[in-house]
Design a protein that fits this description.
Length: about 270
């Protein structure tokens, strides 16, 4: 990838993507990250050898791809302060903010921009990210390819042609690493209750999650069949799964994902004013 990429914001999600990009072979010199405090950038620069800047406009004035990676609540101020530079330079805009539509981002940046909305997740850091992407009408095929290449460097990419579907992507992958971390926490706690040392329990639970995900990815069987294959009739797994079904775990998961998508919609209304 020969494009210069600038990340506005250098927090959890930006540093996960940057880490993944560098591991995938992108030249650190082609990546710039900005944040208000030099102290926050110093660690990133030392660790990853990338360029850093505290001045968003200075960074944006030299870039081909501008990744907006600040919290949604400050996006308006950040975009409006960047609009002159963006209007002059016309970089491809990639916003990773939850619940902020492309038209609003475009308007805050002065209008007429090629805007890709991306919903990534933090496993991008280890090259196992899952990103949903949506492009507005200004995005050319070549720019779509750039966005695809960028996010495929850190995981899988799924394009959606309806922007509203990014809220579903947020529920199933953007926010979802947290669901699995919760599961790992709960399994470790329960295994400790059953007498295992915490570190042993954690290693076993993590390896099992990894193994199950890898099997689900590589097998031609669906998850329901893979689950059934673990459940010997009258055996142990049946008891565990029956307990989860009785406790309505599926409904809990569905309700949680509905709440997640609804929050993305509400944020959009709150922040864009329409
Ligand atoms: N975390 C996640 O798993 C995911 C997050 N996202 C989206 O990514 C975006 C960032 O989230 P996340 O990384 O978690 O948040 P963080 O708070 O970790 O990162 C935000 C970054 O923006 C910096 N920042 C604040 N103000 C400015 C400014 N004026 N100019 C430049 N940088 C600034 C912050 O610096 P400082 O710390 O000094 O304030 C920080 O480096 C959000 O919009 C979120 O919706 C999307 C998918 C997943
Ligand atoms: O919780 C959030 O709002 C962000 C967006 C998706 C994951 N983290």
């Amino acid at each position: 990838m020969t494009n210069k990429i600038t990340f506005i914001g250098a927090g959890n999600m930006a540093s996960a993507i940057i880490g993944g990009l560098i591991d995938s072979g992108v030249t650190p010199d082609d990546i710039t990250a900005t944040a208000p405090q030099e102290s926050e950038l110093e660690a990133l620069r030392t660790r990853l050898n990338i360029q850093t800047q505290t001045d968003n406009n200075a960074a944006a004035s030299q870039t081909d791809v501008l990744v907006l990676a600040v919290k949604p609540q400050i996006m308006r101020d950040v975009c409006e302060a960047l609009s002159d530079t963006v209007q002059q330079r016309s970089p491809l805009i990639i916003s990773i903010a939850a619940g902020l539509d492309a038209a609003t981002i475009d308007q805050w940046l002065g209008g007429g921009n090629a805007v890709v909305r991306c919903m990534p997740n933090t496993p991008s850091l280890v090259g196992r990210g899952a990103s949903g992407l949506y492009a507005n009408a200004r995005v050319s095929d070549a720019q779509r390819d750039i966005a695809t290449q960028l996010m495929e460097a850190v995981g899988i990419v799924e394009w959606v042609e309806e922007e509203a579907l990014l809220d579903a992507v947020t529920a199933v992958s953007g926010s979802a690493p947290a669901y699995f971390f919760l599961m790992l926490e709960a399994m470790e706690d329960a295994a400790v209750e059953l007498g295992l040392p915490a570190d042993t329990a954690r290693r076993l639970a993590i390896q099992t999650a990894l193994g199950a995900a890898t099997m689900a990815q590589q097998s031609d069987k669906d998850p329901a069949t893979l689950k059934q294959n673990v459940m010997s009739p009258g055996g142990t797994t049946e008891q565990a799964i029956q307990h989860m079904e009785d406790a309505k775990l599926r409904t809990t998961i569905a309700d949680a994902m509905q709440a997640c998508a609804k929050r993305a919609q509400a944020m959009s209304k709150e922040l864009s004013g329409h």
